[in-house]
């Protein structure tokens, strides 16, 4: 047998954390593909040595491992502690699980993904096609094309009352990249990152990746999941470096009113080390009378704020991978430097499409207004439908396309052939199993009493989902009145 090893381009998925940090015998693992699976083609990656013994250096342990023979090559499969400190995204895991079930023929209704169900508006898609035809297919400047950054400056001025110059804008491969780079750029090991919960799944993990400590600020459904400024103030220490705000919020749909943001800004102003990442990616998906306020527009906050936005949600451009950050040049340049060694500039084609998106008019013009109208109808339908069910607590979302409902009064029930439903995770497994509806457990967002329903699905799909969920809830014990 030819001994093989995986190249850097191959990917390896580990099943079970016990493997992490241990050495793996490729011979036995190829015979037992359940324990470790390599998705790349291993053929042709043969070890060249003709010697029967081979030295492999074991990273992390500092020891030298001697492979006994050509067909028993031991590979050190230990991973960086960074990997162990980061949790995988539950939204991605559940979406993948639901997709696998659908592919296996199970009629699962998927309401787990954070992705608009609409196509990218035609003028944007057309601009992308033209970009290819016209040869805009090369690297762009790392920070993004001047054309796009100028258009972003114009948008921020017109829609958000924020003045930036193009060198204060960095375009990235999605807002996710913008955020993680900002966290990496400003946090030192041991710094604290304040995150109101429920939070977008990635914020705490991004803090951990920067060797910073997430400090979670719980909120309550009765307060519309908005952070209490007094709680924020009480959690501030000399290590506090970042506060991450998300409005409209994923997962709750809450929108921070201007007055509350002003109170938060007063607290931030008193702590010179504290910066704010204001994630405004759902800015346009907002339901009047709610209005959006950019945190950087508040008195004294321009210097303190890194404003993140992107094209994925409002313009239904998730696959185009385009987001951006705007802020003081010092911080944006630092993010730019990190990006220059991570990925370089974002896709030239997507950047051309993004210019077209910003050209659709104020807040995305008619194309975005049509989608927001549909989201609003769906929100109204879900709020009404779940409002009729005993034991369900709701805070009406004012933006984004998620409903975050408290179903904890259904916990503690033993279900025949299933087990106990005692937390958001088991409840979501129960819904997937018994109702074939995929939802995301609230514990992924830091609130185990709730589950998240994404209403980026047609009204008829939502109607079918509600029917199934209602039936599944009836099978649970009668809920305790709240
Ligand atoms: C709150 C929030 N911020 C940022 C992102 C990242 O968006 P993208 O990387 O697609 O631009 C998401 C996507 O789900 C999100 O929900």
Structure description:
The chain is α/β, with parallel strands linked by helices and 482 residues long. The protein has 14 helices and 20 strands. β16 and β17 (419-421) form a beta hairpin. α4 packs antiparallel against α11 (348-358) and α13 packs across α14 (459-475). It is globular and about 60 Å long. It starts with 11 loop residues before the first strand and ends in a 7-residue tail after the last helix. Bound molecules: pyridoxal-5'-phosphate. It comes from Anisodus acutangulus.
Itemize the secondary structure elements and their pairings.
Layout: E1 12-14, E2 23-25, H1 26-31, E3 36-38, E4 54-58, E5 63-67, E6 74-76, H2 81-85, H3 90-103, E7 109-110, H4 122-133, H5 146-160, E8 169-172, H6 175-186, E9 192-197, H7 202-209, E10 213-218, H8 229-235, E11 240-246, H9 258-269, E12 275-279, E13 305-310, E14 323-326, H10 329-342, H11 348-358, H12 365-387, E15 402-406, E16 413-415, E17 419-421, H13 424-435, E18 437-438, E19 440-441, E20 450-454, H14 459-475
Parallel strand pairs: 7-18, 9-10, 9-11, 11-12, 12-13
Antiparallel strand pairs: 1-3, 2-6, 4-5, 8-14, 13-14, 15-20, 16-17, 19-20
Helix pairs in contact: 4-11, 5-11, 6-7, 6-10, 12-14, 13-14
The structure holds pyridoxal-5'-phosphate.
Pyridoxal-5'-phosphate binds next to helix 6.
Mean pLDDT: 87
Shape: globular
Helix content: 25-40%
> What is the CA-CA span between the terminal residues?
66 Å
Main β sheet profile: 7 strands, mixed
What is the spatial order of strands in the main beta sheet? 8-14-13-12-11-9-10
Question: What share of the residues does DSSP label as strand, in percent?
Answer: 15-25%
CA radius of gyration is 24 Å
Which runs of at least 5 residues are low in confidence (pLDDT < 50)?
1-63
Structural class: alpha/beta
Ligands, ions, cofactors: pyridoxal-5'-phosphate
Helix run count: 14
The count of strands amounts to 20
């Amino acid at each position: 047998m030819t001994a093989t090893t995986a190249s850097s381009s191959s990917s390896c998925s580990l099943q079970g954390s016990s493997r992490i940090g241990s050495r793996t015998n490729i011979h036995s693992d190829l015979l037992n593909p359940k324990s470790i699976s390599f998705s790349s083609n291993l053929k042709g990656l043969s070890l060249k040595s003709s010697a029967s013994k081979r030295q492999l250096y074991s990273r992390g342990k500092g020891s030298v491992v001697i492979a006994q023979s050509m067909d028993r090559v031991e590979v050190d499969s230990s991973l960086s502690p960074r990997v162990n400190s980061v949790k995988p995204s539950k939204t991605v895991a559940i979406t993948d699980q639901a997709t696998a079930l659908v592919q296996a023929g199970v009629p699962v209704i998927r309401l787990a993904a954070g992705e608009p169900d609409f196509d990218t508006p035609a003028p944007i898609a057309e601009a992308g096609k033209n970009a290819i035809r016209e040869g805009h297919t090369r690297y762009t400047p790392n920070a993004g094309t001047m054309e796009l950054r100028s258009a972003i400056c114009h948008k921020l001025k017109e829609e958000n009352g924020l003045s930036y110059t193009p060198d204060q804008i960095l375009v990235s491969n999605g807002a996710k990249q913008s955020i993680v780079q900002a966290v990496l750029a400003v946090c030192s090991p041991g710094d604290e990152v304040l995150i109101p919960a429920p939070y977008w799944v990635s914020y705490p993990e991004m803090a951990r990746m920067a060797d910073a400590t997430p400090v979670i600020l719980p909120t309550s459904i009765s307060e519309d999941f908005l952070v209490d400024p007094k709680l924020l103030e009480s959690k501030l220490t000399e290590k506090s470096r970042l506060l991450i705000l998300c409005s409209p919020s994923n997962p709750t749909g809450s929108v921070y009113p201007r007055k509350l943001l002003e109170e938060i800004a007063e607290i931030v102003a008193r702590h010179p080390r504290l910066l704010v990442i204001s994630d405004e990616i759902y800015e346009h998906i907002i339901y009047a009378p709610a209005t959006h306020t950019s945190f950087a527009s508040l008195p004294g906050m321009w210097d303190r704020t890194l404003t993140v936005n992107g094209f994925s949600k409002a313009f239904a451009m998730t696959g185009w991978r385009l987001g951006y950050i705007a802020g003081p040049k010092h911080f944006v340049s630092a993010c730019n430097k990190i990006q220059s060694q991570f990925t370089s500039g974002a896709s030239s084609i997507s950047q051309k499409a993004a210019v077209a998106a910003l050209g659709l008019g104020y807040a995305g013009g008619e194309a975005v207004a049509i989608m927001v109208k549909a989201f609003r109808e769906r929100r109204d339908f879900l709020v009404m439908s779940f409002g009729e069910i005993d034991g369900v607590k709701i805070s009406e979302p004012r933006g984004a396309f998620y409903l975050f409902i408290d179903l904890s009064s259904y916990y503690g029930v033993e279900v025949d052939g299933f087990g106990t439903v005692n937390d958001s995770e088991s409840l979501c497994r129960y819904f997937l199993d018994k109702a074939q509806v995929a939802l995301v457990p609230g514990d992924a967002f830091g609130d185990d009493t709730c589950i998240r329903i994404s209403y980026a699905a047609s009204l008829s799909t939502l109607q079918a989902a509600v029917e199934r969920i209602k039936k599944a809830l009836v099978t649970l014990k009668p809920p305790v009145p709240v």
